[in-house]
Design brief:
Distance between the termini: 48 Å
Largest sheet: 8 strands, mixed
Helix content: 25-40%
Bound molecules: adenosine monophosphate
Structural class: alpha+beta
Length: 454
């Protein structure tokens, strides 16, 4: 039997109803904040992520799905039989083969979407539009060890606010707006008990001094730390704070913190973000260990966690990435964004799955030869009134129709037999109470929708 690849999964009904509910609510919230949707390709040049996410990150170092893509798959001329009559065609085939190899390039399934959005910003000169407020919803791919809440294909809902400095993209007001949007979104979805953890990781200049201090502090102790940390201590000491190894934690606790190394401008920016959050009453806690997994972040960094999710408790993360556009060869374009793990968001709502699935209002049971066409006509009329209608087949006995209606949770069973068609009035049975009435065609829709709202 062929199964879905490790770390991937099928989303089946009724769960998909919950996914759709989440995405619809998210789109509503984005609309209220004047965000617009962007859709970028699912695969990009490998280079984009190497430069945009950072070679030292776990994502780029270990987790990407990367392949060499040849322009076209071709055989070389070597497979042709020998003989002068094949010489010309052999040369031609060899030339095509060589050209296709020259066109080959390294491609990668996107492990995150910020790099793709910023690539699109540069490619389409989106700075002409001033401040861009963009959101996306879609799959991302990382070769991680699968476990509950961690998949190799997972879904992210994310947003980016990006533009030239003159558009206000650097303002702490943008950071606060994004955070307030997230609080609104989680509240709107009924996610309770979230925590917003907030930090400022400063500018690259602030971090030069911090990295120096970190290196110095790590020197005498790094020998006792895990292999990853020993490597990080040399290549990118900030990443030591990503370490999850229990034995390393007491050492990490004693390391210097970025908060002690913020320059005046970073400090003022961060203070203003906090002031606005207080003014709009979004609660947060400061966590100066929070450095986030991606190299391109500057200043504001944040994560929302949710207690009910277990070990994979980060529901979303984000931050500012003022230097990213330049790192990718574009103009200066400060920005801030976030990515919500949709799988985890849906998981935190799983208890409410029942309430968001709209059950059919009516199941139509055509009874006897020639009744399918009558049932189809009636279903069409009722659906035009925005009712959810399902229907069976004229070959079904009434008992089978009842069972089918029951299985899908329909509220009403509507019988379409020869007598009903002649009278143009139909037997409508309320399944929960067993109550049955004959209702003229013209009143059916009203009767069925009335009781659904009561
Ligand atoms: P990141 O892009 O690493 O900041 O991740 C943002 C959010 O995406 C996290 O907070 C998680 O909710 C979610 N996420 C990241 N990796 C995975 C994964 N492998 N499976 C499921 N969700 C993930």
């Amino acid at each position: 039997m062929i199964k879905a690849p490790r770390g991937t999964r099928d989303l089946l009904p009724p769960d998909t109803a919950l996914w759709n509910f989440v995405e619809a609510a998210v789109r509503d919230v984005f609309r209220a904040y004047n965000f617009q949707e962007i859709r970028t390709p699912i695969f990009e040049s490998t280079d984009l992520f190497a430069r945009g996410v950072g070679e030292e990150t776990d994502i780029v170092a270990k987790e990407m799905f990367t392949w060499e893509d040849r322009g076209r798959t071709l055989d070389s001329g070597d497979n042709l039989p020998p003989g002068p009559q094949f010489e010309a065609i052999k040369q031609q085939t060899d030339a095509m083969y060589a050209a296709s190899r020259r066109r080959s390039q390294s491609l990668t399934l996107r492990p995150e979407n910020t790099a793709g959005v910023v690539r699109a910003y540069i490619e389409h000169k989106l700075w002409d539009r001033g401040l861009n407020k963009l959101f996306y919803i879609g799959p991302q791919f990382r070769r991680e060890r699968p476990q509950k809440g961690r998949y190799r294909q997972f879904y992210q809902i994310g947003a980016e606010v990006i533009g030239p400095s003159t558009s206000g993209s650097e303002s702490p007001a943008r950071d606060a707006e994004v955070l307030e949007l997230l609080a609104t979104l989680l509240d709107r979805l009924g996610v309770t008990g979230w925590t917003l953890e907030l930090n400022s990781i400063g500018t690259p200049e602030d971090r030069v001094k911090f990295n120096e201090a970190l290196r110095k502090a790590l020197e005498p102790v790094v020998g006792k730390m895990c292999a990853d940390c020993q490597r990080r201590a040399i290549t990118n000491p900030l990443r030591v704070f990503d370490c999850k190894v229990t034995e390393d934690q007491p050492i990490i606790e004693k390391l210097p913190r970025i908060s002690q190394f913020l320059g005046e401008a970073s400090r003022a920016h961060f203070a203003e973000v906090q002031e606005i959050l207080k003014s709009v009453e979004v609660p947060f806690t400061l966590n100066d260990r929070l450095v986030r997994g991606l190299d391109y972040y500057t200043r504001t960094a944040f994560e929302f966690t949710h207690g009910a999710l277990g070990s994979q408790n980060a529901i979303l993360g984000g931050g500012r990435y003022d230097g990213l556009s330049e790192a990718l060869g574009g103009p200066a374009a400060p920005g801030i964004g976030f990515a919500i793990g949709e799988d985890r968001l849906v998981m935190s709502l799983a208890d409410s799955a029942e309430s968001v699935v709209r059950k059919p209002d009516a199941y139509i049971a055509p009874l006897g030869a020639g009744m399918n066409r009558e049932a189809a006509r009636l279903a069409r009329e009722l659906r035009r009134h925005d009712l959810v209608v399902d229907l069976g087949d004229e070959s079904f006995r009434l008992k089978k129709s009842f069972e089918a209606a029951d299985k899908i949770g329909a509220r009403y069973l509507l019988i379409v037999g020869e007598d009903e068609v002649k009278a143009d009035a139909f037997a409508l049975k309320h399944l929960a109470s067993g109550e049955q009435q004959t209702i003229p065609r013209g009143e059916l829709a009203k009767r069925i929708s009335q009781s659904s709202s009561s």
